[in-house]
Amino acid sequence: NAGVMQNPRHLVRRRGQEARLRCSPMKGHSHVYWYRQLPEEGLKFMVYLQKENIIDESGMPKERFSAEFPKEGPSILRIQQVVRGDSAAYFCASSPSGQGAEGYTFGSGTRLTVV
Amino acid sequence: GESVGLHLPTLSVQEGDNSIINCAYSNSASDYFIWYKQESGKGPQFIIDIRSNMDKRQGQRVTVLLNKTVKHLSLQIAATQPGDSAVYFCAENYGAGSYQLTFGKGTKLSVIP
Question: Which residue, A80, A96, B38, B40, has most beta carbons within 10 Å?
């Protein structure tokens, strides 16, 4: 039981480049959530996805950010034209059900640094 | 603004002593609360949870207390060990069927050997 797998663990991008963050949920979990953590802050909800569907993207910035969870493969959080303010830790969580937060399991995160 | 917050941003305790980490929340509709431990470079790790129909729940060396009257949550760690050094977050979940967690900013616990 491998848990929630995120890669890469660390990602460095120059301003204007694209960042792609990947998340494979726990086995048996079909609900994926992305959270962002700024330095010395708590995590903030970004988006909730099920296979091939975005259920709630109310926490996503309107521009440059997108997420997907295809039928096959991991969930992807994509940030286009990165800026320094995008530097943060991005965590993915998965759960067996979208009803409530029980069973939430977080991955180890991807730390994005924009230089 | 934040609906979940913490009274103490840092806490230093002697090894073997008990630790108490506090958290205030503002949404009276929240009915599920979780404490997470986050070690440096890692993701949040579940410690203990509590539903709003309870006021106390115990785990191994940890106890969570919920006071709905004053919207306060605390995490007690008994016989604190160096391995307990981490940042601790409380998170709240609004109502049945809600999947979002709202996190506070965290308290850094440092255990002095």
Answer: B38
Give the tens place of pLDDT for each residue, B6-42: 444 899 999 999 999 999 987 888 999 999 999 988 9
For A49-101, the pLDDT digits (tens) are 999 999 999 999 999 999 999 999 999 999 999 999 999 999 999 998 877 78
In chain A, whose CA is at the least distance from the CA of B106?
A42
Provide the percentage of residues in chain B whose pLDDT is more than 90: 74
In which residue are the tokens 């009803």 written? A99
Which DSSP string corresponds to B53-103? Answer: T-SEEE-SSEEEEEETTTTEEEEEESS--GGG-EEEEEEEEESTT----EE
Question: What is the spatial distance between Cα A46 and Cα A89, in angstroms, rounded to a whole number?
Answer: 12
Please give the pLDDT value at position A98: 76
Q: Which residues pair with B74 in a beta bridge?
A: B22, B65
Name the strand (E) or helix (H) holding B4.
strand B4-5
Distance CA A43, CA A88 (A): 10
Q: Is the peptide bond before A8 cis (omega within 30 degrees of 0)?
A: yes
Instruction: Give which of A104, A108, A110, A113 to mutate to test B binding, by max B Cβ within 10 Å.
Output: A104
SS3 A85: helix
